[in-house]
Amino acid sequence: MHCSSAHFDDVHLHAGAIVGWQQTYDQLSEGHPHTFLRHVTGERFQLFQETLDTRVVQRGKAPEGRLCLAIPLGQARSGMFQGQNLGSEQVALLRGGETFFVQAEAGMRLLAITVDLARFARVAAFELSDEQLHRLGHSTRLQVPAAQLQQATQRLQRLLEVHDHALDERWVEQQVLEALLDVLGQADDISRRRSGNKAVGAYLVRRCQELVMAQADEPLGILELCEQLKVSRRTLQSAFHDATGMRPVEYLRAVRLNEARRRLRDQPAPDTSVSRVANDLGFTHLSHFAVQYKRLFGERPSHTLGAAAGAH
């Protein structure tokens, strides 16, 4: 069993520190981020809490063979999960291998659990009704009474605060499973309530991002995206506004800038240069790229590349 906590000044490094998750974090707010991650990871479970002080888009795939649950903490806005607002008395669900798309607001604090799905199914068969078990196969959001959710959250947070590697892993797993069963046993499925338009909007944003990154050296324009997705400009603009609070051009530029940062940090090969990375991602004017990069991340792209080369 592994226990750790760490602070980060880069959302990319923060995302990579969460063991077992195939995911990418893209920073949307301007300036240096300051994030925090604490986790306890065992062979068949994981428990972690993350705090983000900047707006971030999280996208990726849940660990295979796991059931995953996320609980927003405190009163700060948590953002949107799969195109739906995630309230303070709600939890989000993912099954192993499912893709996710999350818009996390600045100040978000999130507590997350993953457990071995086969192990959970065995114990849940004696604890949950057939209807509750059925929900686990398709629900994305559940409403949980505040008192029960707070009780389970406090129980899980106490496990994170112990930081004792000598704790018995089986005992910790038992505590995690019991807290999860307590939450799911009191939950009400709200996944299908008034969800249609927002879910479609989140899908359009995700598809635009995929299409733009598929040919990043010559990014598609808004009209070209509308043509491929067979939607109007108004529909596309509304989708981005509802899902991200940004115009399509602004959001997709931020996505490409985040990819540039990852390449500058992760690929400090002798032939890597700021101009090459910029050109590969469709930024044809190097001076404009440098200004936009510094505005978003609080440092020049040459500084990012130099720091990465020095670290290697």
Please estimate the helix content.
40-55%
| Category by helix and strand content | alpha+beta
What's the order of the H and E elements?
EHEEEEEEEEEEHHEHHEHHHHHHH
Radius of gyration based on Cα positions: 20 Å
Bulk shape: globular
Distance between the termini: 29 Å
Task: Determine the CATH superfamily of the largest domain.
Answer: Jelly Rolls
Number of helices: 12
InterPro entries: AraC_XylS_family_regulators (IPR050204), Homeodomain-like_sf (IPR009057), HTH_AraC (IPR018060)
Keywords: DNA-binding, Transcription, Transcription regulation
GO molecular function: DNA-binding transcription factor activity; sequence-specific DNA binding
Function: Regulatory protein of the TOL plasmid xyl operons. XylS activates the xylXYZLTEGFJQKIH operon required for the degradation of toluene, m-xylene and p-xylene.
Short summary:
This protein is an alpha+beta fold and 312 residues long. Helix 6 packs across helix 9.
List keywords for this structure.
single chain; 312 residues; alpha+beta; Jelly Rolls; Arc Repressor Mutant, subunit A; 2 domains; 8-stranded antiparallel sheet; sequence-specific DNA binding
What does this structure look like?
The protein is α+β, with helices and mostly antiparallel strands. It folds into 2 domains: 2-189, Jelly Rolls (Sandwich); 196-311, Homeodomain-like (Arc Repressor Mutant, subunit A). Helix content is 46%, strand content 22%. The protein contains 12 helices and 13 strands. The protein has an 8-stranded antiparallel β-sheet with strand order 1-3-4-11-6-9-12-13. A hairpin with a 3-residue loop joins strand 3 and strand 4. Helix 4 (146-162) runs antiparallel to helix 5, helix 6 (196-214) crosses helix 8 and helix 6 packs across helix 9 (248-266).
